[in-house]
Amino acid sequence: MLFNSFEFIFVFLPVMFFGYFICNKIHPTIGKAWLFVGSLFFYSWWNPVYLWLLLASIIINYGFGTFLLKRKKNRKLILTIGIIFNVSLLGFFKYYDFFVSNINFLFDTNYNFLHLILPLAISFYTFQQIAYLVDVYQNKVEENSFLHYALFISFFPQLIAGPIVHHKEVMGQYVDRTNKRMNGENIAKGLFLFSIGLFKKVAIADTFAIWANEGFANSASLTLADGWITSLSYTFQLYFDFSGYSDMAIGLALLFNIRLPINFDSPYKAVSIQDFWRRWHITLSRFLTSYIYIPLGGNRVSVGRTYIHIFIVFFISGFWHGAGWTFIAWGVMHGMAMMVHRLWHQLGLKLPAIVAWFVTFQFINATWVFFRAPDFATALNVLTAMVRFDSVPVTMELFMENSDKLLIYLIGASLLALFVKNSIQWTDRLRPNPVYAAFAACLFIYAALRLQQVSEFLYFNF
C-alpha cells in the first residue's frame, strides 16, 4: 500500500487512526496490538507472500535479543550469529542473482538465476534489527516485550523506507500513557507535514520523473541541453520523492503521537560532501557511522587506515542501495570525494562558500546519473551529453513540447531546495491557525486530485 493512494489516505489511515485511540481507551496493550496488526496488513497489501519473511525476521531477531539480554556467556557468539543471519537474509533475496551473474561472467559458468522479487523494506528492517542486536549486546536496551519490539520494527509510517530508527528513540513513546490520547497539536503538525510530503511526491517528483525517464531511455541521442535537463530532472525527482516520503512518514507517526527522527535536512544546501551526508538519509549515515565506521576504528587509527574505513563505509552504502555495479560505482565515488574532502580539510584549505556549494552540487548531480542509470553505457551517454558542446540545443520532442513547464519546474525546484526553509523547520515553528490550515488543505487537495497516476517511491527499490 502506498502513502500516495486513495485506499491508504481515505480508508486505511482513518481506520487505523480512530481505531488506535478507541482501542487505547479499552487498554493500551490493545492499542499497540491494533497498530501492529494494521502495520502487517499495510505491508502484506503489496505482496502477502513476503509477510512470512518479515514475521520470521522479527521473531528470530527477538529471540537473539532475548538471549543477549538473559545470558552472560557466549554473548559475542550470539551477536555474531544474529548479524550473520540478518546479512545472509538480505544477501540472499537482494544480491543472489547479482552474484550469480558475476560468477557466470568471470568463470564462464551457467548457474541458474532465481529471479527473486526484492521483498519490500528488507534493506531497512534488516539494518534496524542489526542495530537493535548491537545495542542489546552493549547493554543499551533493557525492555524486552515482544509486542513492543514487533511494533518497533513494523510500525507502518517508517517500515517501508525509513527512517532507520533506534530502539531507544521510540520505545519510551510507545509506553508513555500521555501518548495514548489524541493530541491536537500533533495532529495539526502531522497533517501539515503529510500534506507537504504528498504534494512533493505527486506534484513535483512525479512530474520530474517523466522527463528523467525520457532522457535516460534515449541517452544515446542527447544533446548538451538534453543531458542537463535529464540529469537535473532526476536530481530533483529523487530529492522531492525522498524528502516527500520522509515528511509523510514523520507526519503519519505524529498522528499517533510518535516522533520519528529527522531523515532529511535540505541536503542540496550542502557546501561539502561531508555536509551533504549529514543532511541526506541522516539515519542511514548514522547507522553506517555507529555500526561500521566506529567499530572498524573510525579515525582513531593511522591516516591510511582512516581512509580505508571511509572507503569501506561508502562501498557498503553503494552496495546497500542496489545490487548493481552502477550503485557500487556511485558509492565508491562518494567515498573518494569524502577522502579528498578530509585531506583538503587537514591541509587547511578552504573555498568560498558559493564555490564550495557549486562544486558539491555539481558532483552530486553527476554521481546521481550512475545512481539512476541501468548500466554504465547509459550513465556515460548522459554525462558525455552534458559536456557535448558540438550539439547544444534541446532536441528531445518531449522536452521541446514542455519547454516552458520545464523551465518553471527547474527554477522552482531550485528555489525550493536552496532558499526556502524545509518542511521540518516550518513544522517546528508551526502554530496551528487558519492560514496554515488553508495552505495545507490546498496542497492536499491539489495532490489528491492527481492520485489517479499512482507511482511508487524511489526508495522502495532499495
TrEMBL record:
<feature type="transmembrane region" description="Helical">
    <location>
        <begin position="77"/>
        <end position="96"/>
    </location>
</feature>
<keyword id="KW-0012">Acyltransferase</keyword>
<dbReference type="GO" id="GO:0016746">
    <property type="term" value="F:acyltransferase activity"/>
</dbReference>
<dbReference type="InterPro" id="IPR024194">
    <property type="entry name" value="Ac/AlaTfrase_AlgI/DltB"/>
</dbReference>
<protein>
    <submittedName>
        <fullName>D-alanyl-lipoteichoic acid acyltransferase DltB, MBOAT superfamily</fullName>
    </submittedName>
</protein>
<comment type="similarity">
    <text>Belongs to the membrane-bound acyltransferase family.</text>
</comment>
<dbReference type="InterPro" id="IPR051085">
    <property type="entry name" value="MB_O-acyltransferase"/>
</dbReference>
<feature type="transmembrane region" description="Helical">
    <location>
        <begin position="351"/>
        <end position="371"/>
    </location>
</feature>
<keyword id="KW-1133">Transmembrane helix</keyword>
<keyword id="KW-0472">Membrane</keyword>
<dbReference type="GO" id="GO:0042121">
    <property type="term" value="P:alginic acid biosynthetic process"/>
</dbReference>
<dbReference type="InterPro" id="IPR028362">
    <property type="entry name" value="AlgI"/>
</dbReference>
<dbReference type="InterPro" id="IPR004299">
    <property type="entry name" value="MBOAT_fam"/>
</dbReference>
<feature type="transmembrane region" description="Helical">
    <location>
        <begin position="52"/>
        <end position="70"/>
    </location>
</feature>
<feature type="transmembrane region" description="Helical">
    <location>
        <begin position="236"/>
        <end position="256"/>
    </location>
</feature>
<feature type="transmembrane region" description="Helical">
    <location>
        <begin position="276"/>
        <end position="294"/>
    </location>
</feature>
<feature type="transmembrane region" description="Helical">
    <location>
        <begin position="116"/>
        <end position="134"/>
    </location>
</feature>
<keyword id="KW-0808">Transferase</keyword>
<feature type="transmembrane region" description="Helical">
    <location>
        <begin position="6"/>
        <end position="23"/>
    </location>
</feature>
<feature type="transmembrane region" description="Helical">
    <location>
        <begin position="436"/>
        <end position="453"/>
    </location>
</feature>
<feature type="transmembrane region" description="Helical">
    <location>
        <begin position="146"/>
        <end position="165"/>
    </location>
</feature>
<keyword id="KW-1003">Cell membrane</keyword>
<feature type="transmembrane region" description="Helical">
    <location>
        <begin position="406"/>
        <end position="424"/>
    </location>
</feature>
<keyword id="KW-0812">Transmembrane</keyword>
<dbReference type="GO" id="GO:0005886">
    <property type="term" value="C:plasma membrane"/>
</dbReference>
<dbReference type="Pfam" id="PF03062">
    <property type="entry name" value="MBOAT"/>
</dbReference>
<feature type="transmembrane region" description="Helical">
    <location>
        <begin position="306"/>
        <end position="330"/>
    </location>
</feature>
